[in-house]
# Entry
Amino acid sequence: MVVRNVDGVGDHDLNCLSIEELERHAYNMMDKQTRDYYNEGADSGSTLRENIEAYRKYRIRPRVLRDVSKINTEVKLFGHTNTAPIGVAPTAMQRLAHSDGELGTARACRNMGIAMGLSSFATTTLEDVAAECAGEVPNVLQLYLFEEREHSKKLIARAKKAGFKAVFLTVDTPFLGRRNLEIRNQFKLPPHFKIANFAEEEEPALADETTPNAPNQSRTRQKAKSSSKPGYHDGEKRVYPTGPITFHSHAANPTLCWEKDIEWLKEECCPEMEVWVKGIATAEDALLAVHHNVRGIVVSNHGGRQLNGALATLDALPEVVEAVQGKIPVHVDGGIRHGTDVFKALALGADFVWVGRPALWGLAYKGQAGVELMLKLISDEFKLCMGLAGVIKVEDISKDYLVKVDRSGFVSRL
Ligand SMILES: Cc1cc2nc3c(=O)[nH]c(=O)nc-3n(C[C@H](O)[C@H](O)[C@H](O)COP(=O)(O)O)c2cc1C
Ligand SMILES: O=C(O)C(=O)c1ccccc1
# Structure
């Protein structure tokens, strides 16, 4: 049921008043294969859980008796006005959640004035997504840079033509993390869906690909092209992925490195698109990103799906912010489930946050309308948090508004 909000802020879905509730609804709406693929983290899932728990270590120090009658949550991103410092992180294969898929997410983002990151491995083409949002929201294409440069080159050219403003090169996937439910379920994309951006390159073999990170069946089905080529490390064999582009065979690229690939990518993208890196977790790599003139970084551990045991992103954020010293924007993702989390990430120095799974849960719940609901919940919570904390402009959110509480309950100023 939808009712008018008593405070006049908008409509409420009485069945779903928080992202926590949204997660529960979505849980029941997704088939097991999809739910497990979307929700799980690598190995024991401790990094996935810690991404969320890290936010609970901080509490807000609200200031009062400030006129907070006019709160502005807007920020600029790639020259566009975003209605809040929040975007939808790129996640693969959204049609698994709902037939609206990436188009539903794009329409929701457009309606809410929120940036959308589109995965290379979307089930909708980048042209169709761009057409939904053209000129209204800053679209970002997430890139997995393949060893076969020609595919990536074509994709980049298409993204430029479609008006994408930036590419986020994902750098935390030299190999795919080990996701045990995915292995056990022998997860694969059902044959009626396509990895749409590569449909031309795709062969019918997609539907029966094996799960790559399962022991002893990883990439041995791929033909070895030439022993002199770089390739995946598969036991003793070096195997270059040459077959159809499937999400299992091509997302990981262990050969990527700063000098060779970042420079190449900047040349390919410039001047039309900015090159960012997604998946930075240390001050050292943040400094390298600055050194290599990337335009921004996303502190991310891929939602805990890659290296389990890695630091929660909120805990990695301060060292990255300190290293970068404002030279390039620092964004963060992972574990953001409430508007107060957005506030905390910004207080610790992030310029912007991206939410991943909550958008998938929104899609599963009600397609486009569910993503809009999720964005409305988190944006409203963020605005309310600003007002209750006594802040009216996003740029005024600082570490003065936070304290850290340790395990024994000891409270310290930052
Ligand atoms: C099901 C799923 C698919 C994802 N696919 C991609 C992808 O294709 N490319 C990418 O860079 N990150 C991908 N991510 C990672 C997200 O962009 C983001 O880093 C992460 O979801 C943030 O954590 P959160 O889900 O806790 O918000 C994926 C995450 C999930 C949950
Ligand atoms: O599942 C993922 O986390 C992911 O990023 C991905 C996307 C496409 C192919 C393989 C992995």
User: Anything to note?
Assistant: The longest strand covers residues 274-280.
